[in-house]
Amino acid sequence: MAFRDDLRRTRAIVWKDLTTERRSKAGFNSVASLGVTILVLFGFALGPDAQMLRDAAAGALWLAVLFAGVLAFNRSYQVELDGGALEALLLYPGSRWAIFAGKLIANLIFVTLMLVIVVAVGIVLFQVRIPAQWPALLGIMMLGVVGIVSLGTFYAAMSSRSRAREVLLPLLLYPMLIPVLLAAMEATKAFLGGDLLNASGAWVQMLALFDVIFLVATFLAFEYVIEV
Amino acid sequence: MSIAPNNSFDPPRPAPAALGWLAFLFFIFTQVYAVVTSPADAMMGHLQKMMYVHVPAAEVTFAAFGVVLLASLHFLWKEDERADLLAASAAEVGSLFCGLTLVLGMLWGRPTWGVWWSWDARLTSTLVLFLIFVGYLSLRSFVEDPHRRGQWSAAVGILGAINVPIVFMSVKWWRTLHQLPSNPRSLSPEYLRGLLLNLAAFTLLAAWFIWRRYEAARYERSAEHASQAAALGGYDG
Amino acid sequence: MDNAVTNGGIGYVVASYVITWVVLGAMLARVVGAARRARAEYEQAVKGEFRT
To answer: C18 vs chain B: nearest CA distance in angstroms?
Structure first.
């Protein structure tokens, strides 16, 4: 019974976060544009040689998604904080993990949509040759996004409520994301490069493992940081 | 405000000065002993002597972070503010030793491999640990409320500790796949005694640093409470 | 025998010991200073009580 109530809470939060996002269309559009802009800057940093760009595409892509996505994480708590709604939300009975799940899912949807746009642009800008088994690439990307979003949503619960939120979130988040980013970048790189050593398989397994570890850890730790 | 009785308001037991002297003198002794008695290595020449500062510094770094982890867990479990102060002290001392380890690692790498930085798993993990320490201490500096600061630091510390071995593993795999050597460092037995002595000396010294830093934090907290009590009228002892 | 190692090596060893001792010495001074100051502050605060 309690679990079903929690699921309902989660769904309500996802819906609320997404609709407030949709009404402020500026939110998604700006973040997606930022992702593309960052990609362009990477193009300037690494190009114009085609082979160089193709080699660097995986790395540039994930970093563009990270830097742009980070903006979404602080903002996902902003709505409650501005209206003082967070205290109200915490007063309602129910597990804290439901709040975390709601925010997590909303951010997942947001970042995934952004990723699609950034990848599309990246393929063009970085002259990436799409391999035959491209659906598998979608799987790799989803795993990477889950890792980034779970840690990002968790740390934003703290940074969004502190004085130096712009610097604190990246400062705390980026070192924590190194394993996820490394695995995602290497899996993507190996896959785009033709996966000669079947290296991407190992990285995908690692990425999945990291996702599980960090999902469990953040779910457990969330109640300690949101209550206070 | 924390609901549990706050015994961090009581003044701390002061660290005995004798311990400090012992740690200091023992440190000087082991450093001189190791440098003087170790013969020049066949391959590395006198570079080998760097091991007596680099390895202990690294060990202390990770031991200090271990203290941060355990103290953070204890804080979340028992809500004892003293555990939070201990974690913070260990983090401060640990981050200094971490920076030292990185510099010494670079000073080792340059003559050995020709580069200041080689992205090898150990050094890279130490660098990431340093970033985690910095994040931890920055977070604490931005949060005023002691209860919130304790809860948030504990969560960040614990997650950070989980991350370090994961980073190490990832970087190692990363290098293996790109067919880079792992730079093993072997140790012949005649150097072992000097190394163990220095490990003990560094650990003792670091433990004393952490104790003194913790003492200072406790006195500050007690002073704060005493002034608050005075302001509210009446000292309840 | 690697010449680069034995020739330039000593400088690096000396540098690492000097840096270590300086850093540890500075840490020592800072930590002891902080502890003494905090204790003095505490004793002041407590004394402040008894006078009022």
So the answer is: 10
